[in-house]
Amino acid sequence: MERQGKVLCIGLVCLDIINVVDKYPEEDTDSRCVSQRWQRGGNASNSCTILSILGAPCAFMGSLAPGPLVFEIYRLAIVICTVLVNAVMLQHANANFHQLRLSLQVFVSKDVAVHFGYQSAASALKGLYSRVKAVLICAWAEKGADAIGPDGVLVHSDAFPPEKLVDTLGAGDTFNASVIYTLSRGGTLQEALTFGCQIAGKKCGFHGYDGIVQ
């Protein structure tokens, strides 16, 4: 593979409060909570976590509130620092804008695809391909994922479900990060898609993310 690129994740970080129960509660009933954990969440935050665990050089850009979850970001070796935005800074940033090298991939969620009337990942990508000049990727839960590249060729990967389904929170972010990780290392679209499904499936077999590389 080629030299590994750096990845910047821009977006949301939040606090997920997860309650574990014996079974899915029925409406208007009380259920005893078996356990509870607080976990840092948010799409960009989760993706940056996965990238760091996989070994990719990455950084997170977003708003952080003071608290213990900030120190967990340091533990994962994710780069964070205070950034001042002012007119002078923007002048320097705009001067170097032409030097940026961008690789454009668009992840289409299942919910968005269904909203636009598509009933499968393949049909969504074929329908949207002419409107978006980019690599399109769409995961479809237990049916795996599809992608279409600049050549218009559709590629597919089956899902890799765990032996026991434990925790699906953040599985989509795990898939996205794993695909980006592979592409940033020079992998093909097919390799990225398969690796993304494998890591996302593995993540669903345990709580959190720390066991992904074990």
UniProtKB/TrEMBL annotation:
<dbReference type="Pfam" id="PF00294">
    <property type="entry name" value="PfkB"/>
</dbReference>
<dbReference type="InterPro" id="IPR052562">
    <property type="entry name" value="Ketohexokinase-related"/>
</dbReference>
<dbReference type="InterPro" id="IPR029056">
    <property type="entry name" value="Ribokinase-like"/>
</dbReference>
<feature type="domain" description="Carbohydrate kinase PfkB">
    <location>
        <begin position="121"/>
        <end position="205"/>
    </location>
</feature>
<feature type="signal peptide">
    <location>
        <begin position="1"/>
        <end position="23"/>
    </location>
</feature>
<dbReference type="InterPro" id="IPR011611">
    <property type="entry name" value="PfkB_dom"/>
</dbReference>
<keyword id="KW-0732">Signal</keyword>
<protein>
    <submittedName>
        <fullName>Ketohexokinase</fullName>
    </submittedName>
</protein>
<dbReference type="GO" id="GO:0006796">
    <property type="term" value="P:phosphate-containing compound metabolic process"/>
</dbReference>
<dbReference type="GO" id="GO:0044281">
    <property type="term" value="P:small molecule metabolic process"/>
</dbReference>
